[in-house]
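Contributing: when you submit paired examples, paste them exactly as shown. First protein:
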Amino acid sequence: MDLINHLFTEFGMVVMISIFFFIIYKILKKDRTTIKIVFSGYYIITAIGFIVEFILNIYLFVGEEIIVGILYKLSLYLVTYALVPFLVFFISYQKEEVESIPKKRWAILIVYAVLFLLFFFNPGYAGANESSGWAPLLDLTYYVIFFILLSSIVVPIYYYIIKILGKFEDKMMKRRWMLLIFGFSELMFSFYYLEFTCFMNDSLSRSIAGFLTLILLSNGAYLIYYAVIRKYVK
């Protein structure tokens, strides 16, 4: 990674971290209900993942493979797992569970925390190393497993947000919810495309994916927040 790309990446990370902390503040500044705390979980966990990645990019210059590998896996674990609170939120939103969330919903958070932990910190998961130019790599087996794990979260989320859309009668809420669907699709495109470029191991594609991720994650996260804010985040 040359100096210009490195500085651009670090600047982008600072911007994304700032955006996510701003959204977290707006969500939790008052009336910290259970449903709002769950909703904010995506932003909190993702922001922590970005901070870890920010530190990771600094360590790339040091070149300590063990530390870089651990930080890489930890950042990817956090950013991916952050989607699970969204799943719990949209299930609860659809079922209008505002004041409290059943224990079986919390079980979803625990199960996926363990599954992603076993996946990303499995000794067979290569991650990033000096031989790959510190670029994250995925072989076919781990790419397929990751695709299945991610899709097991993404597909139900789409199911519930579309189901919620059908319940709205207010045109403004329908328009907002369409923005949410668009924003969530931006998030998912960045996830799938970035992991695909890691599997293909093409430096140009990874650079493009990295640039797109900065834009799509920030914009998608804000659109989701904007769509939900009217009902639960005031």
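Second protein:
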Amino acid sequence: MDNITSVEYDLLRSHIQKLKDFCKSAELLFALECGRYPITLTIRPDEYYHQMSLLESAEQRRTDGAMTFTLEEGEIRITAVGGFVISDAAFSKIKGLFQKISAYWTQLIFRWQARREGAGLFNLWNDVKERLDDEE
């Protein structure tokens, strides 16, 4: 995107940084994929912090689990694999950040597309409005 300067971009960047900081403090890694549909966020334990200890059981050392948040058709879907467990507070924080990041990304894409399409995007909206009016 050429010369992105917008409130949406600043909010997106800010919330990705919040996610990065939260994951670091919670000893988690994340992978965010916004370049294709659906938008996904995958959270997994940071193996650096979960190295084997003689005092831990095999289940406590497990680092192959992950949780994926997917925004598809306006709904967040969560898939957990490999026995990945996080607290309710951490889950809520990550889910909330993912919702905001998804919204800011969508707004940023709209702004970018509007610059590229000019009136074409707004003509699309007028076509949609007209069709909605016809359905009434």
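If you have annotations for the second protein, write them as plain sentences, like these:
The two ends are 39 Å apart (CA to CA).
Confidence is low (pLDDT under 50) at residues 51-55.
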